[in-house]
Amino acid sequence: MHETATPLLPVASTAAPTTVRTAFSPSPIGPPSIGLIRAAVVNWALARHHGGRFVLRIEDTDAATGMAEYYRPLTEVLEWLGLDWDEGPGVGGLHGPYLQSERREIHLAAARKLFEAGELYESFSTREEIEARNHAAGRPLTAGYDNGDREVSARRRASYRAEGRTPVLRMRMPDEEVVFDDLVRGRIVFPPGHTPDPVMVRANGAPLFALANTLDNATMGITHSLRGDDLLSSVPRQLAVYAALKRLGITTHIPRLGHISPVLDARGKKLSRAVPDAEVLSYRARGFLPEAMVNYLASIGWSHSASGSVFTRRELIEDYDAGRMRAHPVRLDVARLTEINAAHLRRLSISDYGAALLPHVIRTGALPPEPDEAQRALLCGAAALVQRSAKTLTEAAEAVAFLFFPDDAVFDRAGAGEPAVGIDHEALRVLADLLEGLADWTPESVGRCLRTGLGEQSRPALGALRVALTGRPVAPLLYETLALLGRARSLRRIRHALDAPPPSPR
User: Fold this and answer.
1) Less Cβ around it within 10 Å: N or C end of the chain?
2) Strands (E), 235-338
């Protein structure tokens, strides 16, 4: 994962950036969640809309325990969704390394330059000393740092060192108001004194997010960044760092920042990783299409100007505008996601639907891992039976699995795990006699035969036939199912159901 790196702290070009460059910089500390991957989708869409570049940078500095477990799922979900990155792990690029843990020397070199230029200063005060000063000044004990170490003399700093104290490095914040134009929320103003001088480097020498993330964006030439609104409060600190980096010639521009609304759970609380529906990869196993997931994630707090709630990846790229994102929180709506998925499933060609359905049918155990050509052909035919009705591929797979079970085992599965399914044997026997004499085995001829021959017995007979053929009281279109199974297999299943003993009462 060692990528090609640029020299430490290159001197910035004097030219303003002309290519839109966005970054997705997750920390691999848990399963990839809806909120996290939504940020990836909107940054990817913004870059693609402008013909720009999408950069993946892994902020693994504080993720040592989760890195091995969650790094691969993070890249896996991006690959599944088709969110291809132009620079980053596994791809490389001119601005690497793309693992933040491998950029430590870059961060420390910047910290040294900022300190030497007077942008950072040493702060030795303990929490107790800060609280005591706040108390003496009549401020709440929780008021936080009071900027009291800004002008400490060299002699005093030497005495602190003699006591064994190690300083943190703080950024000297400007005393005027901070104004910036948020990509999503518009003009935001932070009043003077809103943000105390923040720590940029811990006493142990570890750079903090406000320095590392900002410096990485600057040295990687990131022009736009869409991120969670939990980072809104960090804007004054990061803008101060960007301004200092400009003064030192490390960068020439400040990225446009946008803060997207949080995704809430059903109770209206911020969506937790512990909520099963929050994990993006779980939807792949549940039979959701990647196109539907991208559609849904992009539409959280945003809508396509022409295509409504269902749109393709290409339509998203053509229309994406961060300025149309709504700033208010939005609840995770699995029902809406399911409807979007159903709409995308209906748009697939039969061959594409069959290909997408195949791994889910294999997962049911109805098909072997390597189906033969006849099984694949049967599945392709089955796709047409469920494409209009099934909302997920797992639902479709469960609906067509009966086609691949042995003919003498299907009826035995009826009611498995549920109350036993009873059938009207007399009505089924009448039906069997009708079908035995039918040679032209198409949906139309089978339907005509049964409707003509059954009369008032049609409802119980057709219900019994459905269970005999599929093992389930609810199944795909009956006449089409008969045609797909063929005459010989259909009759074998009916005879087996007639020979089976009735279910014992429960």
Assistant:
1) C
2) 256-260, 263-264, 330-331
How far is the C-alpha of 402 from the C-alpha of 478, rounded, in Å?
Answer: 13
Mean per-residue pLDDT of the chain: 90
- Give yes or no for a contact between 9 and 107, defined as CB atoms under 8 angstroms apart: no
Structure tokens at 5: 């790196």
Residue reference for tokens 């006849």: 374
Q: How far is CA 452 from CA 192, 422, 458, in A?
A: 86, 25, 9
**In this structure, are residues 439 and 498 in contact, taking their beta carbons and an 8 Å threshold?**
no
> Residue 420 and residue 504: Cα distance in Å, rounded?
8
CA–CA dist 4, 478 (Å, integer): 61
Alpha-carbon gap, residue 424 to 224, rounded angstroms: 67
pLDDT in tens, 142-200: 889 999 999 999 999 999 999 999 999 999 999 999 999 999 999 999 999 889 999 99
* 376 exposure class (CB count in 10 Å sphere: 0-12, 13-18, 19+): middle
Q: What is the pLDDT of residues 393-403, one digit of tens each?
A: 999 999 999 99
